[in-house]
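pinging the channel bc i need a second pair of eyes. not urgent but kinda urgent?? the chain im working w is below, pasted from the shared doc
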Amino acid sequence: MTLFKEQMPELSDELKNRDPMDAIPRLREGVDCQRDNTGQIQLRFVIPPKNFIEKFFGQTLNFSPPTRINLDLRGSDFVDAMDAKRTIRALAKFLAKKWDCKPEEANAAVLGFTKSLMRRNMIQLELKI
């Protein structure tokens, strides 16, 4: 059945052949990054209200509490290293040296952090063409 196939945009051949490790991760607009007293990072994101009713009920009944993620030491290092210039590959290489681990372990950790934070809408990826 091709019900949804027509709605999906086709990727160009250039994008199909790109390595995902060439993407540049960055914090999504509206994500607040704060350190706690142990030096680890807490990411916080509040979905802004679209109209007066959402704002009223959100403030009165706390309908839109912020999404919070407390990162561990490695997660904090990952977010610290994201500078909107480094690719995922460069981040993994940098963090492998910092963590004194094998490149394969750093690659797996960086891809895991990227996937987890993207699922929670905390980061977005940019591909330079």
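so Residues 47 and 68 are 12 Å apart (CA to CA). and The chain has five helices and five strands. — does that match what u expected or am i reading it wrong
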